[in-house]
Amino acid sequence: MRMLTRALPTGVLLAALLCSGAVMAGAERLDRGNGPEPSTLDAHRCPEVACANILRDIYEGLVAEDGAGRLIPGMAESWEVSADGRTWTFRLRKDLRWSNGEPLDAGQVVASFRRALEPATAAPHAHHFDAVRTIEAPDPGTVLFRLQRSLDLPRLLVLPIAYPVYLPAVDAFGARHTRPGRLIGNGAYRLKEWLPQAHIVLERNPHFREPAPIPEVRFHVTEDAASELRRFEAGDLHITETVPPQPLASLRERFGGQLRISPYLGSFWLGLNLRRPPLREQPLLREALSLAVDRDVLTRHVTGLGEAPAFGVVPPGIAGYEPPSPEWAQGTQAEREARARALYAQAGYSRERPLQIELRYNTSTPHRRLALAVAAMWREVLGARVSLRNEEWKVFVGNRRQGLITQAFRGGWIADVDDARDFLQLFHSEGANNWSGYVDPEFDALLAQADAAATLEQRAGALRAAEARLLQAHALVPLYFYTSKHLVRPEVEGFEANPLDRHPSRFLRLRD
């Protein structure tokens, strides 16, 4: 069919091309898929990967990470720790500035930390800093942390909760300090535009010490992985946030080296609401639901991109930690299913008197496929009646947090740090992210024992005992351990695999 471009004025044609999104902006703009709409851009209140990816570009902590995930100097040019591991001193770079050009000093860093850690902020990751006794600024160029126990503090200081928030904007605008024109950061980029359910645009921060190679970054809301894949194929995206479940051989044939799959410190499970019947008083029923799931089938035929079946919470690959192997996970799947049916009957259910349960998940093609598969297994093995409900991310997160209307729900965690405790703290009875409402004083005591341990071996032993106790209670249904999955266009340089799957835009380049 003949193209009718001559019928359009040049200016109209150019405008149409620029608005289409199908034309890459050369080396001037990086287009990244980013999953669901971020729930917030308040660094201290960021609970998920979608906001952390963006905040990592807008802010910089005392310590930063390079493109390979290695710790590097951030706001602090150097740091040192006392012999007992309880006092950390960070020396700031000279001439630090906010993205509005104002000077940034140690006093502002300390004030921001106080806001992050005060209970009124309700920061979801404040637990990482439970060991902090005081934070001081003895002079404008020094930040001093005094701890109640030794702690590998630098690796925590790369998290969004440790970013310096510009408090004058918080005081002036409250929760709306995160909007364009109001959000002041200190990183390589600054917020330019936020179009809800579409994209967030960042532009190069002219006051950052090193100009970012790419002038502009656009983070696209890509809640549906299949749609994201189509947008990548159409040229709308340089990098996808994930890859939808498809046969791996087919993906490799289609995309070759553009497909990037690597180990990832993350776990996926189904949470069980322990605040209300029928799951609260029924450990046998919870165990039956877990045993009825064929994890090998899920990882081979439903996810299918290198994920490993999971019978625990903490993923493999964490240094110095050997996860427990629960007794109920032993044997063949046929044996597990036979035990599941027996436990289901002991709990008072049968095909004539079936369990009726709702499985809730956030809107996403992979999550829908997984929910359908698990529901089919529960129906086939146990005779349970399963209803499915999907919700937009923000709605789902809110319902999961308050725990009143959920029964079984999509859970999971991506490591903040390379530490087994990062996963186990989710089930502490007072934890901000204890979505299931799991309460066990002995489990809490084991976490406290790990915190007070004199050696790394003692700490690992206490954490292993805590995980074993959690799994024996069947407070969740472990499903699989993640891999990171991205499609990356050939012109993107500097995209390096790392176990935490963090890729700051300032370490990426676009080849012309």
What does this structure look like?
This protein has 512 residues and is of the alpha+beta class. It folds into 2 domains: 25-236 and 488-510, 3-Layer(aba) Sandwich (D-Maltodextrin-Binding Protein, domain 2), CATH 3.40.190; 263-484, Dipeptide-binding Protein, Domain 3 (Dipeptide-binding Protein, domain 3, Roll). It has 14 helices and 18 strands. The chain has helices at 10-20, 49-58, 106-117, 167-173, 225-233, 248-255, 283-291, 295-303, 333-346, 365-382, 393-402, 421-424, 441-452, 456-473, and strands at residues 29-33, 63-65, 71-73, 76-81, 87-92, 132-139, 142-147, 189-195, 199-204, 216-220, 259-272, 308-309, 356-362, 385-391, 408-414, 476-487, 492-493, 509-510. The strands form 5 sheets. The protein has a 6-stranded mixed beta sheet with strand order 12-16-11-15-13-14, with helices on both faces. A hairpin with a 5-residue loop joins β4 (76-81) and β5 (87-92). α13 runs antiparallel to α14 (456-473). The longest helix is centred in the C-terminal third of the chain and has 18 residues, at 365-382. It is globular and about 70 Å long. The two termini are 31 Å apart. The model is unreliable at 1-26 (pLDDT under 50). It is found in: Cell envelope. It holds the Pfam family SBP_bac_5. Belongs to the bacterial solute-binding protein 5 family. It comes from Arenimonas fontis. This is Peptide ABC transporter substrate-binding protein.
